[in-house]
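Hi C.,

You asked whether I'd gotten around to modeling the 391-residue construct. I have! Everything is below, sequence then structure, no commentary in between.
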Amino acid sequence: MQSPLWTLCRSWTAFLLLAVAMPVLAEDTARKVPVIEQVDEAVAKLIDENVVAGAVTLVSEDGKVVHLSAVGKADLESNKPMTRNSMFAIASMTKPITATALMTLVEEGKVNLDDPVSKYIPEFADVKLEGKKLEKPITLRQVLTHTSGLGGDQRVVKSLENQGKILAERPLYSLPGTKWQYSPGLNVVGRVIEVASGKPYGEYLQEKIFNPLKMNDTTFAPTDEQKPRIATLYALDKDSGELKPSTRRNGNVETNPYPSPSGGLYSTASDLFRFYQMMLNGGFLGGTKILSRDSVTELTKAQTPDEIVTGFTPGNRWGLGYCVVKEPQGVTEALSPGSFGHGGAFGTQSWADPKTGRVYLLLVQRSNFRNSDASDLRKDFQNAAKAALSK
């Protein structure tokens, strides 16, 4: 019969061996993340053609990640490979997140979507079109749908309070409600969030969106620990045909330290999946509630009339901070009517399809990428994923 001491020693030995093996087991588990080979092949082809240096792609179906892969380089000069947890400046993909944060205030009764902007930013009471004051005030719904008449750059100078005043003094491009004009309207929304909540915009998003959804790598100001994971931004040199390091304006915390509601966030594929899955679920992720189902519907339904042409690709309408696919065609042919999402200036794309229950995420870092919403990279990625999942 074995002594109790021998049994105890044997148990501790087994425990220590297991502890040593755990990192290996964790690595093995990480390597088992599913990959759709056709998607990697489609993306790798365009990496070989110097369209982008590298990419992270994610596809989910019915709440389950069916593809998560990193291809190419995060930094060409150091030969650093792209990884699944690489971070990206997502630029205008920030806009839907800002709109979603505003909707939490609508649910709390602190904001009404048809309120005049001047209720929160008094300077908007004096906005002019062709030198004349407006007969009807600009509303929050109009700035959310890019039909407010605002236009121009989307920077935030000093603070959102200051930027709100700057935008109120900027001449309008068109009569509010009559035309779609991509605009800094979500910067207006960011300031409304501050006024209605009594909290700084970035702090409010952290409290209402990022913390509850455990989006731990979504931030306006990456930490020293996160910075090495940020993929380098490249531009295509027209003379040499090579990718060269570029500079970013939105999302550059050194030159633009105040959080930009229109385009300042950094994030990862896994974090963005959690956000878009919450939206597909009708405002919930697991036991965490961000919004009601009705609020999600309001955000992601077409708000603009058919006679107003919207977006950067045909067949779209605009929701509240979201682009909505009404008639899939061309680059959107892999999506169903009612799909919603947004692109970013550096080639990033995020789309959720309620009919198929799929999320498509494409993360790259490429400037001078003319109309990346209509890029072959986006089209080939989505088509390859749909074809593989439809078999």
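If it helps when you're writing up: The first helix runs from residue 4 to 31.

Thanks,
B.
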